Amino acid sequence: MLADADLRLDAQFVDYALLAVYFVLVLGIGYLARRQVSTSLDFFLSGRSLPAWVTGLAFISANLGAVEVMGMSASGAQYGMPTMHYFWVGAIPAMLFLGIVMMPFYYGSKVRSVPEFMLRRFGKPAHLVNGISFATAQVLIAGANLFLLAAVINTLLGWPLWVSIVLAAVIVLSYTALGGLSAAIYNEVLQFFVIVIALLPLTIVGMVKVGGWQGLVDKVTAGPGGAEQLSSWPGDAITGFGNSFLSVLGIVFGLGFVLSFGYWTTNFVEVQRAMASKSMSAARRTPIIGAFPKIFIPFIVIIPGMIAGVIASELVRDKAALMEGQPGETGVTFNDALLLLMRDLLPNGMLGVAIAGLLASFMAGMAANLSAFNTVFTYDIWQSYVVKDKPDGYYLRMGRWVTMAGTVLAIGTAFIAASYANILQYLQDLFSFFNAPLFATFILGMFWKRMTPTAGWLGLVMGTASAVTVWGLAQAGVLGLSGLGVSMTAAGTAFVVDIVVSVAVSVVTTPKPADQLVGLVYTVTPRASLRHSETGQDAGWYRKPALLAGIALVITIALNIIF
């Protein structure tokens, strides 16, 4: 585990004091946010009253959890620059698509969640399937964030892992149950700045220690993985395909289209932040504003992982074995990369800031999962199918109880995440199960009015089943896949199966009348209803979603060419 004696961080009083101040701020924000919560809409969607810059930073901070920080630094140590694909191919295009194309439908329809959009488009069976699958996914992903959060506390204090997990869960539960989505979002804005302040110095000190960029190039070239780790393309090692053409195809289609669009455009954890915005324009700008920091985050999470892989003594010794899937002599894994770097490079005081940054990232991720889980479970499962037509106050109280239940379940799923050597692979497997088929259903249903309600739920079920089947065959050694290749293949299979099943079923079943699809399907929705205001608080060239998206896309293409 992460709490081996060699990994114990030498924290002093100043480090603990900084952590105490941080936790006081976090809980204080939750307490203040509680005073603004009087209805269920306030609790679950912040009353749709937040400005774009707040929701934009929260949008990206909600994703700065286990997969971003520990997962990406782990993959940086293991694969090097090809890990950049998770950002420049596997995130930015989909985030821009969400802002430009899909947010007008989400926000304009005034739905409270993504499953509720499914209800209006496809009816109750698809709504229930999506609600249950999403709630399950959020509990599993929250467990991954919780495990890594607890692992840091375990490393810092030496407490047993289960004690650390419970303590970490109580902290996140406290402010999320108090203030709902507003508490989560305002804490995510705070946590975004704490994470950057923590990780940027680690990157700078690490680059100095390794001898600058050229020093890093020399050391990586001479180590396991060699020069292939210094170029993002074609990424053979990270896909596990062993063929450059298949690797590029897998990265572009499997990661860049199916996994990426499936996550960013249909995942209510992210969409919920945009739906909390105070206007259509602000909602469209939310993911686009988030795209700009997302472009540059790789330099403070992946680069430190690469540095750890060449200067942390344990990883230097064990890297070759770990890349072969074998345990090393020292007992560390790639998940330890960031902690090893913190231990070796940071002085007291700065160590406290770095630990606060790690805790902030995990709490942001877990709180985002919990706030999305309580919304979907309360609105889309409990209110829709279990206890209907109660006063609003009942569902507000229920939301807090559901938050507590979700936290307890996340404690259990944290131990599932603990069994993975690279937490990023675990999360990508989950995305292939839940997000890839959902994206196929969404994209087909949003642009093809002939798609029927029966096709909506049946395509989802068959797509998910096919992804799980591919994953199981890979685990059994039947398919001979490894690394990201497993989730890419599972996601691609789920997408294709969902589309084929949906089309086939739609041909033999009855669609909804066109007048019931206005605002839900692109081809029958008047263009005027998809436009947003460009006056008042939405005026100015710097508030034009299309222009901002174009700038972000140009920067992303340039970085793909350079690296």
Characterise the protein shown here.
It is a single chain. By secondary structure, the protein is an all-alpha fold. The chain has one domain: Sodium/glucose cotransporter (Up-down Bundle), CATH 1.20.1730. The chain contains 23 helices and no strands. Helix 4 crosses helix 15 and helix 4 packs across helix 20. The longest helix has 50 residues. It is globular, with a radius of gyration of 23 Å. The N terminus is likely disordered.
Distance between the termini: 34 Å
SSE arrangement, N to C: HHHHHHHHHHHHHHHHHHHHHHH
CATH C-level class is: Mainly Alpha
CATH-defined topology: Sodium/glucose cotransporter
**Helix fraction?**
over 70%
Give the second-level CATH assignment, the architecture: Up-down Bundle
What's the name of the CATH homologous superfamily? Answer: Sodium/glucose cotransporter
Main sheet attributes: strand count, strand direction, barrel closure: none
Oligomer: single chain
Rg, rounded, reads: 23 Å
Total number of strands: 0
Number of domains: 1
Low-confidence region ranges: 1-5
Shape: globular
Structural class: mainly alpha
Number of helices: 23
Mean pLDDT: 79
Q: What fraction strand?
A: under 5%
